[in-house]
Amino acid sequence: MRRLLCLAVLSCTAFAATPAVAETHSRDTDRKVFVIVVGDKGSVLSCRQRSPKPACVALERAGGDPARLPSRTDAVCTMEYNPVRVSALGVWAGRPVRYERTFSNPCQMQAAMGPVSQF
């Protein structure tokens, strides 16, 4: 898990490499990249301006903060204890974002994170 997270951080760093000086400001504020690790699986989510990806739309509405994603109130989840750890590390509109949370089961995670957990 640590190895995967280290690789994820390195790939985020690669995305954050500084472009030419004249373009630095505009690109930094446009950059919206996350490495999301769910359990032992990781994925890179890159959102461009007006991205049609449901995960990008949800994060845009939450201001790039996974903790502010609206939870589904109509989700019916069992009381099963099957913990799922979610980590997200990235850059949203030029500011660094880090998120970590452990959900009691996959259903709870999907209800809380919506399309961000499914991309």
TrEMBL record:
Q: What residue stretch is flagged as signal peptide?
A: 1-22
Keywords linked to the UniProt accession: Disulfide bond, Hydrolase, Protease, Protease inhibitor, Secreted, Serine protease inhibitor, Signal
**Gene Ontology CC: one annotated term:** extracellular region
What the entry lists under SUPFAM superfamilies is as follows: Subtilisin inhibitor
- Which residue ranges does UniProt annotate as crossing the membrane? none
One BP annotation, GO: proteolysis
A molecular function (GO) held by this record is: serine-type endopeptidase inhibitor activity
Location within or outside the cell: Secreted
Q: Which residues form the Subtilisin inhibitor domain?
A: 50-105
Primary residence: secreted
The Swiss-Prot or TrEMBL record describes its family as follows:
Belongs to the protease inhibitor I16 (SSI) family.
- What does the record note on quaternary structure? Homodimer.
Stated name of the protein: Serine protease
What organism does the record attribute this protein to? Nonomuraea montanisoli
